[in-house]
Amino acid sequence: MTNVNETRLNELVGCVLGDIGGAVSVPLVRIGDALGLYRKLKEIGPVKADELADASGCAPRYVREWLAAQAASGYVHHEQGLFSLTPEQALVFAEPNSPVNLIGGFDTAAAMVENQPKVQSAFKTGRGVAWGDQAGCMFCAVARLFRPGYVNALVQDWLPALDGVVDKLKAGATVADVGCGHGLSTILMAHAFPNSRFIGYDFDADSIAAATAHARADGLTNVCFEIGRAQDFDGRDFDLITCFDCLHDMGDPKAAAAHIRKALNEGGTWMVVEPMAADTLEENINPVGRLYYSASTMICVPTSLAQETGLALGAQAGEKRLTEVIQSGGFKHVRLTAKTPLNMVLEAT
Ligand SMILES: C[S@@+](CC[C@H](N)C(=O)[O-])C[C@H]1O[C@@H](n2cnc3c(N)ncnc32)[C@H](O)[C@@H]1O
């Protein structure tokens, strides 16, 4: 081999081996979540493997091997034959409302693997893969990935950072959540502001059915969901329109921006929540950029290309490009109002 730098090669191999370890952990983490192993371990640990198996109704030989893999991954703590979750491990794997619960990331990774044949063919044709034709439960995986961020920031930080919006919501406003998916964001807002009325639009019928079922299960009467496209949904005269992690998925986000402008009333606000990104590839070479560029290749770009226009902004469009798209719809002012490790929030008026 010529020009091979041994040190750099060893670093790369070490790094890729670590990545493969993460990739093969996807089914194990999802089994641990689905069978309640993390939650049970949090509750009863430190315990021996057989005790966890017994308490969770699982076969001891499988649980022993699973725990060994988890300990080797650093996802479970092991000491003198006893297994437990540290407080930090519990926040990531066993507490659904923790801001750093990352189980949804593993669900999304599984859905991306399932998407491979369709997206691989699309690389050759340049066509899209429609949102509804993607992996088994792409919708559930994505909803779960974003859930911790919404639960911990939407009502507490993102809405208050908008100019005058919380006062309107408290008094009683009309709100549309466009591209609402399973409606988690809509439902969180509906719970927090009982005097306001919320409508969630999404062009995916299955997502609307799931969102409706969630709202019903919560007993909410100030929220409903309708099938509708961002570029031509029916409603008018909204005080606030929100878009959560979906503008870049749209085929024609400029047409959506123009339609949303018309659907707002005088003084109305558009809140655009998008994946966190800087404006250049160089600045996005980091773990979050890696996650989002990968998801964008397998989910977001195919979703956009499957629609009219197919602008395919990508999940790492960044503030500058997003601002151009938003302003093309007739919005005069665009302001970055909040940032989390995974999301940025723009206010458009
Ligand atoms: C990544 S998901 C986000 C869903 C939800 N807002 C959330 O944060 O969990 C993107 C959503 O955009 C919807 N979508 C994409 N293009 C759309 C369009 N043109 N009109 C309406 N919804 C659209 C998809 O159906 C999907 O539910």
Automatic annotation (TrEMBL):
State a single Gene Ontology molecular function: methyltransferase activity
Residue ranges constituting the S-adenosylmethionine-dependent methyltransferase Rv2258c-like winged HTH domain according to the UniProt record: 28-92
- Where does the Methyltransferase domain lie? 170-297
What is the enzyme's main class? Answer: transferase
Record keyword Hydrolase present: no
EC number(s): the record gives 2.1.-.-
Q: Name one GO biological process term.
A: methylation
**What InterPro entries does the entry give?**
Methyltranfer_dom, SAM-binding_MTase, SAM-dependent_MTases_sf, WH-like_DNA-bd_sf, WH_DNA-bd_sf, WHD_Rv2258c
User: Entry's Gene3D superfamilies?
Assistant: Vaccinia Virus protein VP39, Winged helix-like DNA-binding domain superfamily/Winged helix DNA-binding domain
Which keywords label this protein? Methyltransferase, Transferase
Positions in coiled-coil regions: none
Protein name per UniProt: Class I SAM-dependent methyltransferase
- In its UniProt entry, the species of origin is given as Rhizobium brockwellii
